[in-house]
UniProtKB/TrEMBL annotation:
The chain crosses the membrane at residues 6-31. This is histidine kinase. InterPro entries: HATPase_C_sf, HATPase_dom, His_kinase_dom, HisK_dim/P_dom, HisK_dim/P_sf, PAS-like_dom_sf, Sensor_HK_Regulatory, Sig_transdc_His_kin-like_C. It catalyses: ATP + protein L-histidine = ADP + protein N-phospho-L-histidine. SMART domains: HATPase_c, HisKA. Residues 567-780 form the Histidine kinase domain. The keyword Transferase applies. Its EC number is 2.7.13.3. Pfam families: HATPase_c, HisKA, PAS_7. Keywords: Kinase, Membrane, Phosphoprotein, Transferase, Transmembrane, Transmembrane helix, Two-component regulatory system. PROSITE patterns: HIS_KIN. GO terms for molecular function: phosphorelay sensor kinase activity.
Length: 780
């Protein structure tokens, strides 16, 4: 037995250790490879499952045209055998149609040559299946150099969804275009803000409102419609709407078109984070509301001034408003009404105040009035007769917005007036029928409305005719036969038309065939009608004719008297001239020298002859015609006045009367007859001197103006009574002494001479205060 050396043992141990280490390493590597193979098999199995369940089927097209495709693709294309090349995909009854096969072939060639990926839609023959082929150059790890990897997707459902989506997109596009057109055509400003609240779109109304050139300028310059008011500006509400997701509204002022307007701005959040907005011009609405408020206030103020009571109830039947007349009419206290009592409580309070009609079933009566609130589009009217004789007219009007309006009109006075009117009508009828005159009232259209019994009897009309209210022309025609001249019947129609149409009062007279005479008068009445009256003047006609005959007789007698006086005056002149001549011869001594008493007697005869001659001249002047003409020559009033005063100076001295003459420089001259003017002044002076006692005074004053001259004779004598002053200028009136005193011709003659010159004479006198007579003579 061999014994190993120590060195060999070491070597042998090292070799064994190495072998053992190599075995361990090999075991480790084997175990690792086994683990990797197990993992690879699991991955491969998973990939097979994924490929089998994948919605896409892969196909590898090698560089030589051979293809590798899964069973899933064969089933989609309906192939009976696996295809070897691309051409096999379109051979036979199944597979791809020719167009799809050619498009796929071209796409694969492009990918092989230029490594260009592609997406091609293909369709199977005789099938509705649509496929989407997505290809690219095959990756290197597929072990298909120069090949192409093509993934086929079943796009049948995708195509339907795509078609549906396209239709939806088309519809949404049309709706968007319509909405955009609507926004553009909208008359109110509209805009859109992005998520940063920047203006992204505005319509034409917005552009016009901010007076910009176009929408691009508005968006580029971010021109806001509403100016910054210092409280966040126009973006405040938009930011709140965006952050809160709730629409916002605010009323803000803005200047549009140079005018201050009130806008209601609406900001609406959008899903994309932006906000849309629009502005409504409410300026006119606000003004209308303010006008309505003012109208309501004015209406209530007006209702408070009405004499009729007004009460308005709301939909809850509570009192909303009542005027002062309502409170006064039903004795309602304002503090009680301030609680807005309900309709039933109002009726109960009226009953307590004894302001309701007396009814037996008050609850039922009240329930009937409560139904007024449900009556639609109808006006209810009632008459309430209250205790104490008060009459109320009640009008209930349901309101369109709900509620009830009550109007209470106090008609007590009207009822009393109507009763009084009925009484007056009866009195009028009785008065008409008992009047002596015949009366008829004609309407504006000429029809007879009222008449009395006298009217019917005068014309002899039948009751049936008058009851038919005939027109005035028909009535006149029916009564024409009663007149002496039937043509005069037209006068009736003319008078009535004058009173009704022209509103003028006219009258006339007609004679009846039986000898009666009537006076017609048509008087316009305030109501547009005409009152036609007929007065029987037959007796007054006879009296008038008698008076006319008497007047003619008196005028004839006056002419005879005047002619007699004139003839007598002329007849008296002949012996008077002889007396004067013989008296002058005696006074001149032709019959011998006279004694002193003879001379005195002859002078007295001559003086009496002169006075009698003057009286005769005065009588002749009075008996001359009224149209006697006077000469028109310049007359110096100063000389004329002094001449008249000298003629009266002798009698004035004899009576102890002071005669004063005062002629101003303005007296001047007038055109006329100097003798007549002097006689007029002389007559006035003689009248005054003849009526004065010793120691009295007469003043003759003459002045003038540019158009006329004035002559004034005044005295401080006894004056005249008012009755005598009225007759002072009448011819042949009694003298101032009254009774049987001599006739006074001075004043009538003076008046006659003055009026012959176109002048006027006035007399002012008072008993015991003297007399003042003024003459006005025109210059021309």
């Amino acid at each position: 037995m061999l014994t190993l050396s120590a060195a060999g043992s070491v070597i042998l141990g090292a070799v064994v250790a190495l072998v053992l280490a190599a075995g361990l390493i090999a075991l480790y590597i084997g175990l690792r490879m086994r683990r990797d193979a197990t993992h690879d098999r699991a991955v491969a199995a998973r990939l097979e499952v994924l490929q089998a369940t994948s919605p896409a089927a892969p196909m590898i097209v090698r560089a030589d045209g051979r293809v590798e495709c899964p069973q899933q693709l064969e089933d989609w294309l309906g192939l009976a055998m696996p295809p070897a090349t691309l051409r096999d995909l379109s051979e036979g009854e199944h597979g791809l149609d020719s167009g799809s096969a050619q498009a796929l072939n071209d796409a694969v060639r492009g990918a092989q040559r230029a490594a260009r990926p592609f997406r091609v839609g293909v369709k199977a023959k005789e099938s509705q299946r649509s496929l989407l082929a997505v290809g690219m150059r095959a990756p290197a790890n597929l072990n298909a150099p120069g090949g192409v990897l093509v993934w086929f997707f079943d796009a049948s459902e995708m195509q339907e969804e795509l078609f549906t989506l396209r239709e939806e997109v088309s519809g949404l596009g049309a709706a968007f275009d319509a909405l955009r057109g609507l926004i553009e055509a909208a008359p109110l400003p509209m805009w859109y803000r992005d998520e940063n609240l920047k203006l992204a779109m505005v319509n034409t109304a917005y552009v016009r409102a901010v007076e910009a050139e176009d929408a691009a300028q508005v968006i580029g310059r971010q021109i806001e419609l509403v100016e910054d008011s210092g409280m966040g500006g126009p973006l405040a509400n938009a930011a709140i709407a965006r952050d809160s997701g709730q629409p916002q509204m605010s009323a803000v002022p803005a200047t549009i078109g140079g005018a201050r307007r009130m806008l209601k701005v609406h900001d609406i959040p959008l899903p994309d984070g932006g906000a849309a907005g629009f502005a409504i011009d409410v300026e006119e609405l606000e003004q209308a509301r303010a006008g309505i408020r003012r109208f309501a206030d004015a209406q209530r103020a007006l209702l408070d001034r009405l004499s009729a009571g007004v009460a308005q109830f709301g939909t809850d039947r509570g009192l909303r408003f009542c005027n002062e007349a309502f409170r006064r009419m039903f004795a309602m206290r304002p503090e009680w009404l301030s609680d807005r009592p309900e309709f039933d409580r109002i009726l109960e309070r009226m009953r307590e105040a004894n302001r309701l009609p007396e009814v037996r079933d008050f609850p039922g009566w009240k329930a009937e009035r409560r139904e007024w609130f449900q009556v639609a589009d109808a006006e209810i009217e009632e008459n309430w007769h209250l205790p104490g004789g008060t009459h109320l007219r009640v009008v209930a009007q349901p309101l369109p917005e709900g509620g009830l309006l009550l109007i209470f009109e106090d008609r007590t006075e009207q009822v009393q007036l109507a009763s009084a009117r009925d009484t007056l009508l009866r009195v009028r009828t009785a008065t008409f029928d008992n009047l002596f005159e015949a009366l008829g009232v004609f309407a504006a259209d000429g029809r007879l409305q009222l008449w009395n019994n006298k009217f019917r009897l005068v014309w002899g009309f039948d009751e049936e005719l008058l009851a038919s209210h005939p027109r005035v022309d028909a009535l006149a025609q029916a009564g024409a036969k009663k007149l002496a001249n039937p043509d005069r019947a037209s006068l009736i129609g003319a008078l009535v038309r004058s009173a009704t149409v022209e509103r003028q009062q006219r009258g006339g007279r007609v004679a009846f065939a039986d000898g009666r005479h009537f006076e017609f008068t048509a008087v316009p009445l305030p109501d547009g009608n005409a009152l036609f009256t007929m007065l029987d003047i037959s007796d007054s006609r006879r009296i008038e004719q008698a008076l006319r005959d008497r007047n003619e007789a008196l005028e004839a007698a006056d002419r005879v008297k005047t002619a007699f006086v004139a003839n007598m005056s002329y007849e008296l002149r002949t012996p008077l001239t002889s007396i004067k001549g013989f008296a002058e011869m005696l006074h001149g001594g032709y019959a011998g020298e006279l004694s002193d008493s003879g001379v005195e007697y002859s002078e007295a005869i001559l003086e009496s002859v002169a006075r009698l001659s003057g009286l005769i001249d005065d009588v002749l002047d009075l008996t001359e015609g009224d149209d006697a003409k006077v000469a028109k020559k310049p007359v110096d009033l100063e000389l004329t006045a002094h001449a008249a005063a000298e003629a009266v100076a002798g009698p004035a001295r004899e009576r102890g009367v002071d005669l004063a003459v005062e002629v101003l420089g303005s007296a001047g001259s007038v055109a006329g007859d100097q003798r007549r003017i002097r006689q007029a002044i002389e007559h006035l002076l003689r009248y005054s001197v003849g009526n004065l006692a010793k120691g009295k005074r007469v003043l003759l004053h003459v002045d003038g103006e540019k158009a006329s001259a004035r002559i004034v004779v005044s005295d401080d004598g006894p004056g005249m009574t008012r009755d005598r002053a009225k007759r002072a200028f009448d011819r042949f009136a009694t003298g101032p002494g009254g009774g049987d005193s001599a006739l006074g011709l001075d004043l009538p003659l003076a008046k006659r001479f003055v009026e012959a010159h176109g002048g006027s004479i006035d007399l002012i006198t008072e008993p015991g205060e003297g007399t003042l007579i003024t003459i006005e003579l025109p210059r021309g």
